[in-house]
Write a structure and sequence with these properties.
Elements (H helix, E strand, L loop, with lengths): L1 E5 L7 H10 L3 E4 L6 H7 L5 E3 L10 H6 L5 E3 L10 H6 L4 E2 L6 H16 L2 H9 L20 E5 L3 H12 L3 E5 L10 E2 L2 H7 L2 E4 L13 H6 L4 E5 L8 H10 L2 E6 L19 E3 L8 H19 L9
Parallel strand pairs: 1-2, 1-3, 3-4, 4-5, 6-7, 6-9, 7-8, 9-10, 10-11, 11-12
């Protein structure tokens, strides 16, 4: 029987239940008795399959890869593998898989809704009304614009970027994207990064965190945006230089930002981002809809069941 070590801390055990249903008698699920590295290290030598954690509390690095001598798969229940040393596991002969595209529609919808909220100062107006004021006239001074008249630039054109392009286009936006290479089937226009920045009234950051993308959007890039541009980050926090973004927001060079991800999570209580009424803050939940979770759980369970049955896993990195 395959020993499946499940590291997620989901309270309702929905992922565990889905995996148990998929593997049947071919596997047995084991959870850490405490969320500590020592407990993780105790479990790894006997693990045939490791299902990763999304909190970062139990990272799977080179040390862990060396301990998991029986493992045949590391399965991340999600897209991001920031807490997994994929190269170390590959060197140990263990494939790492994720669930590509499972939450793309959810994240893209969040990006579009957030951009629309910023462009119309919706959250600011909401806070004003809740505070007992009636800003019907005051909002006219905030430069509200219809989303459809804005030019959208998307940095990154994976599943999330492509879905964003389709949704923004449905609002009437002119959409362009930048990526390592142009996509032949794309309906949006491909532009090099610097050219994209100069025309993006809304910049959507949808790239994964790598050494190449860390700090990709810094003071230089923010200064290239059209005056009053909006920044939406649904990639990873360190892709955008937070101090540079705060400075651009305070100066008015960037008129608003919607951030679902941050350099350090949870966001520090004294972060200057919390003080700016032009910033929409979200606790890394853009892809956290029930719809997305069902897709992630189904793909995770399918891959675990495949390996339990002796088949090759899908979606390996």
């Amino acid at each position: 029987m395959n020993r499946i070590v499940l590291l997620t801390a989901d309270e309702d055990d929905a992922l565990g239940a889905r995996i148990r249903d998929a593997v049947g008698a071919a596997g047995r699920l084991v959870r850490p008795t405490s969320r500590t590295v020592d407990e993780l290290h105790r479990l790894l030598p006997d693990a045939d399959i490791v299902v990763g954690d999304w909190s970062g509390e139990l990272p799977l690095g080179a040390t862990e890869a060396g301990l998991a001598r029986r493992a045949r798969l590391v399965q991340q229940p999600g897209v991001g593998v920031n807490f997994i040393d994929v190269a170390a596991w590959a060197a140990a002969g263990v494939p790492v898989a994720n669930t590509p595209g499972a939450n793309a529609a959810s994240v893209a919808e969040w990006a579009v809704v957030a951009a629309a909220s910023l462009s119309r100062s919706t959250l600011w107006a909401h806070a004003e009304v809740r505070a007992g004021r009636w800003p019907q006239a005051a909002i006219l001074g905030r430069g509200c614009r219809d989303l459809g008249e804005l030019r959208v630039g998307i940095a990154g054109f994976g599943a999330i970027g492509r879905r964003c392009a389709a949704l923004f286009a449905a609002f009437g936006c002119e959409v362009a994207y930048t990526a390592r290479a142009a996509h032949r089937a794309a309906t949006a226009r491909f532009l090099p990064m610097d050219e994209l920045l100069t025309v993006a009234d809304v910049l959507v950051v949808a790239v994964p965190l790598t050494e190449r993308t860390r700090g990709l959007i810094s003071a230089r890039e923010l200064a290239m945006l059209p005056a009053g541009a909006l920044v939406v980050n649904v990639g990873r926090g360190p892709v955008v230089d937070e101090p540079a973004l705060v400075a651009a927001l305070r100066s008015g060079a960037v008129s608003g930002a919607a951030l679902d991800v941050f350099t350090v999570e949870p966001l520090a209580s004294d972060s200057p981002l919390r003080t700016l009424d032009s910033v929409l803050l979200s606790p890394h939940i853009a892809g956290g809809s029930d719809t997305a979770r069902r897709r992630i759980y189904a793909m995770t369970a399918e891959n675990v069941a495949r390996v339990c049955a002796g088949d090759r896993p899908r979606w390996t990195l």
